[in-house]
Hints:
By secondary structure, the chain is α/β, with parallel strands linked by helices. The protein is 39% helix and 17% strand. It has three helices and four strands. It has a four-stranded parallel beta sheet with strand order 3-2-1-4, with helices on both faces. Strand 1 (8-11), helix 1 and strand 2 (32-37) form a beta-alpha-beta unit.
Amino acid sequence: MSSLQDKVAIVTGSSRGIGSVIAKDLAKEGSSLVINYSGSEAAAKGVVDEITTVGGTAIAVQANVASPGDMTALFDAAIAQYGKVDILVNNALASSNLPAKKA
């Protein structure tokens, strides 16, 4: 049995890219996942579908990592669904901290 079996993981920014790969790998090891997204609900639901199709457990929750209120709601949703949080992967970048783009 994997040491990640029956763990609950939140992966911020897990609707695409590295975050989605991390989330799927955690699910393969037996963790239940909270797929966090900021903008694309469809992409997040796609990751949830990929996880649940192979027998894993996952939910999608919208939250902006730059918002303390959103982060509280993200953890509240995880605890409401699974009763605990064991793992947090801080993958998302708070867009408010990005440097301004040059024209």
